[in-house]
């Protein structure tokens, strides 16, 4: 069974995470000194972008623990995402990273990665709401634009800028930096609202209850207050308290207007 954790327990998990060995946490192998730099005037083709995204996703999958098909986390995610084949023509694929970080992210190629510790604290509806929101960033091309910026300004910019028609082979350090950019991508409030709407529409189109997104946001808002915003995902999603409340209110009103019934709160269970 999935561990049933209270909101108070979440803050403990987050504080413990800081003291855990690096091998137990999400592995990025950050590139030293990969600070933001001025973007270069480099043109990237869709083919090059696709190659760099695939290389980055493959690297992250290789360097982080992915449970096998018989693992309970994997079976739960497979059950929840059954029938979710594509989003706006982008094929989707899902995997679990069995790590202590509370997080989830989606890549421009439709690769969605959900962390086991996030699954521990979210009900099925809430988890689907988070997945829908992350997919919203993909369908609105936010993640693609953020990844392109990371390519042109981060640790991999010299390698990218030195190629013409073929994607360059990147080092572990460069791939780690790109992975960091994927998972920690920060979006404007406008983009977050767009992802909320796109995620809402994606969930509805696939027969899922959009209230899950609202319920997940409410849980994260409570985490933000009780854990002091120590979760990277909470920081990424909700950098502004007033905007968080507005987003929750807006999505709640939309779900109510559309006639969806709010599910009863339930603890996350492993089935």
TrEMBL record:
Its cofactor is Zn(2+). Keywords: Hydrolase, Metal-binding, Metalloprotease, Protease, Signal, Zinc. Binds 1 zinc ion per subunit. Residues 1-24 form the signal peptide. One of its GO terms (biological process) is proteolysis involved in protein catabolic process. It comes from Paramuribaculum intestinale. This is Peptidase. GO terms for molecular function: metal ion binding; metalloendopeptidase activity. It holds the Pfam family Peptidase_M48. Belongs to the peptidase M48 family. Residues 243-271 have a biased composition (Basic and acidic residues). Transmembrane segments: none annotated. It comes from the Bacteria. Residues 240-271 are annotated as: Disordered. InterPro entries: Mito/Outer_Membr_Metalloprot, Peptidase_M48. Residues 75-254 form the Peptidase M48 domain. GO terms for cellular component: membrane.
